[in-house]
Amino acid sequence: MTQPPASPPSLYAAREPIFPKRVKGTFRTLKWWIMGVTLAIYYLTPWIRWDRGPNLPDQAVLIDLAGRRFYFLWIEIWPHEFYFVAGLLIMAGLGLFLFTSALGRVWCGYTCPQTVWTDLFILVERWIEGDRNARVRLWNADWSLRKVRLRVTKWAVWFLIALATGGAWVFYFADAPTLAGQLLTFSAPLVAYSTILILAATTFVFGGFMREQVCNYMCPWPRIQAAMMDESTLTVAYRHWRGEPRGKHRKAEGADQLGDCIDCMACVNVCPAGIDIRDGQQMECITCALCIDACDEIMERIGKPRGLIDYLALSDEEAETQGAKPRPIWQHVLRPRTILYTSMWSLIGVALVYALFIRSDIDLTVEPVRNPQFVTLSDGAVRNTYTLRIRNLTADDRDFRVMLTSDEILRIDVETDGPVANHVTVPANETMQARIYVIARPDDPAADAVTTDLRLWVEDVETDDRAGVSTIFNGKG
Amino acid sequence: MADNKDIDEATGTDTTGHDWDGIKELNNPLPRWWLWCFYGTIVWGVAYTIAYPAWPLVNSATAGLLGYSTRAEVAEQIAEVEAQNAEVAAVLASADLSTLSPDDPAHRYGVAGGASVFLANCSQCHGAGAAGVQAGGYPNLLDDAWLWGGSLEDIEYTVRHGIRNDTDPDARWSEMPVFGDILSDEEIGQTVEYVLALSGQDHDAALAEQGLVLFEEQCTACHGDAGEGIRDLGAPTLNDAIWLYGGDRETITETITYSRFGVMPAWGPRLDEDEIKAVTLYLHQLGGGE
Ligand code: SF4
Ligand code: SF4
């Protein structure tokens, strides 16, 4: 072993503050729009009303945990239909695979809440403290009344946004106007307040202070993304073969040997990850494309073609260095891999839509009582008991007649009889349990057979809609 | 620190300076806040073991400053539920079961609660499904045959006082003589044939004819003229398809020769009033209630 250096290097690093500069351009405009739309969706969705009739909530999107229902526009999901949610999650996953394999970390750059809220927080920061240079000055300045005032204002606005973020979340779980009233009069459930405060705290800290640290150290998604990217994936990159050697002094001697990069640091100054894209693809880059905007502006000003920094694939680097023309976007995007993801995504989507259309608004499950399998009655008849669970997925009470079909003679007897024999009324939007008896008379073959097949039915008295389940009858045999 | 930087050539990354046979460890510094979070979790962990029960001692464990225990929490939850149910339980305890409407919350509470009472106290003999155990002579409670009656009132009385026990003077009491001491084997055989005939099973008609005489002499007092049983005496019906101990020739012979009867404890002293009513309601709605 060689002697270690006198003072060993630190194994821990403090966060380097980043002061992203304002930038204008195509991608910045696109990001403003995406930010506006996604934030609007998040904050406003719980307030959309949707008329479902008198017995059901009129909130368009509502996760009713206590009632175990998920309402989404005209769709109402019961716990036993959780596969819809599973399907949607799989689709969301495949969608992310698709976008990642085609466009790299496009989720991170444009739509991830971490990115959107950080962007919003940086916007607030700029409004209050000024653009990059002013912020750097303020950072380095000693504490003064002005610094305190600016900091406190900024934190206050951040906190209000954070509070609204946590606040909007809870509205997805309860009737929004009612809960809002309760929150204001301090009569809302405790869990609502604690949820709001926890989410407000995480929003405040993640958006205001941790920012790129969340992506670099906490988020698992970039680690997974790497598996879905290949050399044809479009990411933000620097055409070093065009830009190098870089140089500031365009009038100096030998300037004609220089590449297009004038080393103005514009791309570095705007980067929310605090990196230099000219060093090549880096772990920290969220492909927000702001450096493309920054560089394009410079290129235009110095009269060079745009695209020194651009959406590129690794495979382009090799081709273009050897003088090939840039490849059109569609060639990057349409690849077997992306086509595969798209078809899987659509397949599941079609299956879900199909399942949605064929699902019936009556649902029947039958649970035969197996302890004991049958009961002998005093006249020698054999009786089986079944527990029916009838789900009424509609908003009205429904009257069902309970029936059975079988090749053998069997009699049915419903215990929870309504006024009419063998009828049960299931209240709106509820599951009802009914116990029924099926009886074989002593000399019917079913009484002595080992088992007899039968099918139990419930049929809506008014609409004749029915649901049936096959089961067996146990005889003495 | 720039002076003692030791940069790895291949990656351009700083190294920690540690060197094992020429292999150097790269230094990718961890963010400092991560370190603080780590310290935070240690502090939290220690504080947790002080606040909550944690450290094992010889016979117990430290109790924790907050005095928390899962057992106390369960007790609290049970008390809470009991308090919630107190009203309906009181209604049930004082209810007249024969007039209690099935839509009454007390009725629903009774059926649901009775199922638990049954599982905890009765299922050991009568089976979890209440189907009884023929080999043990534990009656099936699901069918329509009742030794002592299947009305709510009868069931409640049976549960409260039990059968043939010495603890409750009001216990129901049935008695069947040991006919092995009274009749000869031949006579018993004839009686058995007649009992088989009563319940419509295969039998020897000639023997049964003689058995009829013996049956009228010895058995009708309790089991009735046609073997229909007498509930006041707890004497079972013999002319149906249900047998407490078994209805084949061999079992009936054994029953007549040695006599049999069951015992059931009185649950009056052991169960609360609402529990007795609850289990009564539960049994009554299993399919055989009268
Ligand atoms: S790395 Fe994670 S947190 Fe950061 S933008 Fe991407 S998905 Fe969002
Ligand atoms: S390098 Fe460019 S694309 Fe990547 S995070 Fe920075 S500004 Fe965004």
Give a verbal description of the structure.
By secondary structure, chain A is of the alpha+beta class. Chain A has three domains: 26-80 and 111-220, no CATH class; 230-327, no CATH class; 362-474, Immunoglobulin-like (Sandwich), CATH 2.60.40. Helices cover 42% and strands 18% of the residues of chain A. In chain A, helix 1 (26-44) crosses helix 4 (113-129), helix 4 (113-129) crosses helix 8 and helix 6 packs across helix 8. The longest helix of chain A is centred in the first third of the chain and has 27 residues, at 145-171. Chain A is elongated. Among the domains of chain B are: 80-171 and 269-284, Cytochrome Bc1 Complex, Chain D, domain 2 (Orthogonal Bundle); 179-258, Cytochrome Bc1 Complex, Chain D, domain 2. Chain B has nine helices and three strands; from the N terminus they run βββααααααααα. In chain B, a hairpin with a 2-residue loop joins strand 1 (15-20) and strand 2. In chain B, helix 3 (105-126) crosses helix 9 (273-284), helix 4 packs across helix 9 and helix 5 (185-198) crosses helix 8. The radius of gyration of chain B is 36 Å and the shape is elongated. The termini of chain B are far apart. Classes of the chains: A alpha+beta (477), B mainly alpha (290). Chains A and B meet through strand 1, helix 9 and strand 8 of A and strand 1, strand 3 and helix 1 of B. The complex binds iron/sulfur cluster (SF4) (2 copies). One iron/sulfur cluster (SF4) is lined by residues 107-108, 112, 114-115, 214-215, 219, 221-222, 286 of chain A.
